[in-house]
What does this fold into?
Amino acid sequence: MTNIKVSLLDRINFLFIDQTFITGLIFFVVGSIILYATNPNIDLNSFHFWMNKTTKTETKIKKVKYTDNTDIYYYDFEANGETYLGNSTASGYLYDADDKVTIEYAIDDPNISRIDAVNHSSFDFTIVIILIFPIIGLVSIGNTFKQMFSVVSILKNFSQTDAVFVDMEATSIKINDNPIYKIKYSYTVDHTRYQNTTKSLKPDKFDGNEVLLYSKSKPEKSVLLKKLPKSLQRKV
It folds into this structure.
């Protein structure tokens, strides 16, 4: 067989046999939970104000919700002949109901608004540190998805040969204090020698008897058979 249809279940299995994907998923989920739990009123609209043109208008505070760290102010305002409802968080600056305030809103989408010239509950140094964890998680998840799509592409039209061990080194990335190893291997297709790498938690050398699958159209793209989930190995 020189082509294999990779099912959705096969793709899910591929993701979850990869330890870096699982670790990345944990980093992303736990980091996001901690970020929200420690900053429930964080002003995520800041990104929109950095990226979009805004304008300002005057209005009055309709209602205030006071919390220990950040207060939430509710208001409505007129824009483009319509009335919009909005709320804005602020710290270190207090308003009462019926106080006049200046509202800044996105011209293209007035649903994005906030009170102008106050200390919003936005990103501070602590939040940036916490944010590192979900970002690391997303990078790990993205890399695993990239590998999965590469494997799907290879299996559309592949051939197989033996891989020969070339070199191995421990990377700076560790999981449970165990380094992830970068393993380099080579293989020959039509008298042309190719080199590729794979990663593993086990420093496993091999002696030319590891089955390798490579793309017929792009022989430089390859994957070791043992790196595939069992469900795909049985189809080869």
Q: What stands out?
A: The radius of gyration is 27 Å. The CA atoms of residues 84 and 143 lie 41 Å apart.
